[in-house]
Amino acid sequence: MNSDRREFLERATHLLLLTGAAQLAFDAVVRGEPEAAPNYKTTDHWWAMAIDVDKCIGCGNCVRACKQENDVPREPFYFRTWVERYHVPDGDIEHPQVDSPNGGYDGFPEKYRPGDGAKSFFVPKLCNHCAHSPCVQVCPVGATFESPDGVVLVDKSYCLGCRYCVQACPYGCRFIDPRTSTVDKCSLCYHRITRGLTTACCETCPTEARVLGDLKDPKDPIHEFLRTHKVQVLKPQMATGSKAYYNGLDGSVR
Amino acid sequence: MGRIFGHREHLVRVAGLFLAGIVVFVVLQALLIPEGFGRYGHYRAGALDDARVHPVAYAGRAACLECHPDAAEAAKGGGHAGVRCEACHGALGAHAADPTAAKAQKPDAAPLCVRCHQANVARPAGFPQKDRAEHAGDEPCTSCHVAHKPGIPPDVPASVSGGRVGGEEPKTP
Fold first, then answer.
1. Same domain? A22 vs A83
2. What pLDDT, on a 0 to 100 scale, did the predictor assign at position B153?
3. pLDDT bracket for residue B1 (50, 70, 90)
4. How far is A2 from chain B (nearest CA, A)?
5. Which of A220, B43, B98, B172 makes the best surface tag, with the fewest CB within 10 Å?
């Protein structure tokens, strides 16, 4: 009797509070419904990326591979991933010099002299695939979303090109694709990771400065990485739930 | 009571209008909301499958080693053992799918090596790097170094190589 009443109350509350799309979504969450495609269950994965700043050599392999794999526009030069070079004079982390010629596509010609009293390093950047993405929150039509496996994706057939998300992303990871006038961004190579491959940037990174990880897989090396390194996410004060974990991140990095 | 039923005609009209409104709403909703919207969240469920439809340009190391296990064997124990094939050889998904249709090209070592190993103050200090012009001039890197298993060639005096021999990489401090 008691459980019957609880069930009734639960159902009634859902019906009253959640209508239409929300009710359907709630039902799907409760059922843990797998998607139609075989062998890959979105509910079994939670993707993240481990980035080791101390290992990045600024070769630009990731930028070139990403452009080729995902057909990122070359004219004008947009990026789904890019590399920044930081030059921090004598501990002045408030005023770093940052450059990223062509996003690092052609590498980084030497610009600074050794022993000039500053530290220099490379920082690879990409979509942080936030669990609480500001970009998803501002989309007026539900064209960008956090997938059940933790990837922020864009529904290009539904995007209006209103640019709200471009402004909302605190990491500058989005751009308007001039060919389609819809938004484009890193998809974490969703077509690859759902086939058991790693992302194109991780595949071509020679020093394993960036490694894709599945937080729901207890055997994934990312757990070891997170346990043994002092990691940080970009702009933690924004509480975006970023899943790009940086090791050796300097305070000057924005 | 009697007064309310005296206005029955008005009530029926309002109820009819109300019902028509509901019908219009339901029809519009069915027309405007795409299929699968809301199945997983506030988005079209089919967008997940759409994101998966994209050709793969980089085949991945496992695919390379299916036919070329000798390459991994050659790199074993060297500084390049952890470097995946397509980091240097480029995207070879087409070649992996049909080895006869798309031939893999041998990469040009000169621009390739310096991409990673040209001296740069922003590179991690422990990473092996040289100023190419000063170190080798126009001599190709592969005259002395083996691409798959680089290291200091054995015929270089210990005073220069720091006691390291072929295949061994300088230790990261």
1. no
2. 67
3. low
4. 31
5. B98
pLDDT at A143 over 50: yes
Instruction: Please tell me whether residues A122 and A18 are part of one structural domain.
Output: no
Could you tell me the CA-to-CA distances from B118 to A156, B25, B131, B136 in Å, in that order?
A: 40, 66, 5, 11
Cβ B87–A204 below 8 Å, yes or no? yes
Cα–Cα dist A242/A228, whole Å: 19
**Residue range A18-50, pLDDT digits in tens:** 544 444 444 444 433 334 446 899 999 999 999
CA distance A246 to A220: 17
Total domains present in chain A:
2
User: Chains A and B: how many Cβ contacts under 8 Å?
Assistant: 156
On chain B, the residues whose CB falls within 8 A of the CB of A120 are 121-122
For β-strands A244-247 and A47-52, DSSP reports them as: parallel
| Same domain flag for A52 and A21 | no
In a shared domain, residues A24 and A63:
no
Phi-psi region of A185 (alpha: psi -120 to 50; beta: other; left: phi over 0): beta
How many Å lie between the alpha carbon of A207 and the closest alpha carbon of chain B? 7
A172-217 pLDDT, tens digit per residue, is: 999 999 999 999 999 999 999 999 999 999 999 999 999 999 999 9
Phi and psi at residue B165, to the nearest 5°: -120, 175
Domain boundaries, chain B: 57-105, 107-173
Q: Best interface-test mutation with B: which of A42, A203, A212 has the largest number of B CBs within 10 A?
A: A203
pLDDT score of A13 more than 60 = no
Question: Which residues of A fall within a CB distance of 8 Å from B120?
Answer: 57-58, 108, 110
The tokens for A30 are: 């409760």
- Say yes or no for a CB contact (<8 Å) between A142 and B43: yes
CA distances from B97 to A204, B72, B91 (A): 19, 20, 12
Q: Which of B42, B91, B122 is facing A145, going by the closest CB pair? A: B42
Between chains, do A25 and B51 touch, taking CB under 8 Å as contact? no
Give pLDDT, residue B155. Answer: 54
Classify residue A97: in a domain, yes or no.
yes
pLDDT in tens, B122-170: 999 999 999 999 998 888 888 888 899 987 765 555 555 554 544 444 4
ipTM for the complex?
0.80
Instruction: Among B42, B85, B86, B112, pick the best mutation site for testing chain A contact (most A Cβ within 10 A).
Output: B42
Q: What's the average model confidence in pLDDT over A88-95? A: 90
For A68, other C-beta atoms within 10 Å of its C-beta total 16
- On whether both A51 and A26 belong to a single domain, the answer is no
